[in-house]
Amino acid sequence: MLLLLDKNITSDHRRTLDEAIHGAGCTITETPTRQGLLLLIDGDLDHLRQVPLKIFDGVTKVVPLSGAYSLGSLEHQAEPTVVKVGDTHIGGGGFVVIGGPCAVEDESTLREIAIQVKTSGATILRGGAYKPRTSPYSFRGLGLDGLLMLRDIGQETGLATVSEVCDPRHIEACISNLDMLQVGTRNMSNFDLLIEIGKSGHPVLLKRGRSATINDWLNAAEYILAQGNPNVVLCERGVRGFDTATRNTLDLAAIPAVRERSHLPILIDPSHATGKASYVPPMAKAACAAGADGVIIEVHCNPQAALSDAEQALEPSDFRDLCEDLRLLETVRGSRTQS
Ligand code: PEP
Ligand code: MN
Fold this sequence. Notes:
Blueprint: E1 2-5, H1 11-23, E2 26-33, E3 36-43, H2 45-48, E4 59-63, E5 83-85, E6 88-90, E7 96-100, H3 107-120, E8 124-126, H4 144-157, E9 160-164, H5 171-177, E10 180-183, H6 191-200, E11 204-207, H7 214-225, E12 232-236, H8 254-261, E13 266-268, H9 270-274, H10 280-289, E14 294-298, H11 316-338
Parallel strand pairs: 7-8, 7-14, 8-9, 9-10, 10-11, 11-12, 12-13, 13-14
Antiparallel strand pairs: 1-3, 1-4, 2-3, 5-6
Helix pairs in contact: 3-4, 3-11, 6-7, 10-11
């Protein structure tokens, strides 16, 4: 069960409430939110349900939890969440572009790509340092060295940074060197990882599991939110389909479906969704038109030589053209929402 408290609850009212909850044999875990303190109540809930918590002074809302997501729901928060990553705000109306290589390969390649994506209008640099690969024999990233390169080049170019974390043991290093953590599709249901990221409070890009329903995905987000980390951005990156013409099947309907259910921002990753560079610009533009909060796109100065996901990397010139189109589309979208 969740209780939302009035921001101005008096200490007397708070004490009375705590006594009632503890008296029913339940425990309280506190999470600060923008609307006020949120209490997650666990224990003998059947007993507690007999206590009329709704009418206690200082209690704004009582949400019975039935295993479904709740903190991420519109019922809990009507206004859109805005997540700050470096100087970039994700959510609440703008359109954010994240660009960079699939993997951090070496410093000079990363620098060249970073300069190109920044000039085109990206504000966040992506690049995998810990790469989960389908085959154990593929390039699995530079690890900590890659993180440090990303940090240095990000600082040099004035770009915020995002990179994937796969292992709870790497969270600390990722937090101290990155502006945003990414949870990849293969780890969306790694609940221990989500809990640790939740405790960190760091901004997180939560990719949709490739066989996950929207409900599974929002519940994964709930694991992070329930630890008191409100900085969750969702990312649709295609789900497993039956067609081999594209790497995955991009579910653009996830944008309105998430909007109807949640206040969390949603980005689209057309690179992993399609697996083919020429399919990326049309899908990125469709994402913008459909109301996404931004896109994350793989870019490489020499795609043929990329150590991972070479077929889906955009050349910098194609990325620049795409960013121009996206700016135009964003203007149209903006004037529409204001009218
Ligand atoms: C990535 O962004 O490089 C990546 C591996 O993405 P996903 O988890 O969506 O496959
Ligand atoms: Mn990739």
